[in-house]
């Protein structure tokens, strides 16, 4: 499976994966992040069930607090 993640092409050995699986695969550990596939922001409640397809363009934005 080939995805474009934050503008970078990434290859995965899986034919399909959920957003939650992708985040784990990428090693993202921050608790607060948002995901868009194409131009659609995906609700966090769908991260476990939303299936990514070969060729999808994914943007993952992490939030960092501070002052």
From TrEMBL:
InterPro entries xrefs: Beta-grasp_dom_sf, Mopterin_synth/thiamin_S_b, Thi_S, ThiS/MoaD-like
Coiled coil: none
Name of this chain's protein: Sulfur carrier protein
A Pfam family matched in the record: ThiS
Species name: Persephonella hydrogeniphila
Organism domain of life: Bacteria
CDD domains xref list: Ubl_ThiS
SUPFAM superfamilies from the UniProt entry: MoaD/ThiS (SSF54285)
């Amino acid at each position: 499976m080939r995805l474009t993640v934050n503008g970078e092409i990434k290859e995965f050995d899986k034919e399909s994966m959920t957003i939650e699986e992708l985040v784990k695969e990428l090693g993202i550990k921050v608790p607060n992040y948002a995901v868009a596939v194409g131009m659609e922001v995906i609700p966090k409640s769908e991260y476990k069930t939303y299936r990514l397809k070969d060729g999808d363009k994914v943007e993952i934005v992490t939030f960092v607090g501070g002052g």
